[in-house]
């Protein structure tokens, strides 16, 4: 049996994910009210760094779309390499932001530094395993 994409499955999946997120948010909100949790501007600022990454991605997209407007061959090649370099920097920045957000979340949870290091290492390992498995599935699908 082969898995195929269909719109009904996508809609059901989106609805289930939305319900899970809504349930978690209700749980988190009730817990914050019950235990009197407050957030400082410093903790919120760590989570707002995603907007910075989004702005960089938008600038990169605008730069890449202007590559075709160049006239000379060397201009096009130079633009492609500079856009590739900018994309690599955006990737590195996204990993940095992920690290900052993870540190902030673990610090807010009030865990001992030993446990937060173990949790952080586990989450990073799971993320890398997911990325590698997607690449392997793609490579095997292309060859198969």
Secondary-structure blueprint of this entry?
Blueprint: H1 7-35, H2 41-47, H3 49-65, H4 73-108, H5 113-143
Describe the 3D structure.
- It is built from five helices and no strands.
- By secondary structure, the chain is an all-alpha fold.
- Helix 4 runs antiparallel to helix 5.
- The chain is extended and about 65 Å long.
- The two termini are 15 Å apart.
Describe the structure concisely for a colleague.
The chain has 144 residues and is mostly helical.
The DSSP helix count reads 5
Helix content: over 70%
Q: Please, what is the average pLDDT?
A: 77
What general outline do the C-alpha atoms trace? extended
The end-to-end distance, rounded to whole angstroms, is 15 Å
What is the makeup of the main sheet? none
Order of secondary-structure elements: HHHHH
What's the Cα radius of gyration? 21 Å
Number of domains: 2
Number of separate strands: 0
Unreliable segments (pLDDT under 50, ≥5 consecutive)?
Answer: none
Structure class: mainly alpha
Bin the strand percentage.
under 5%
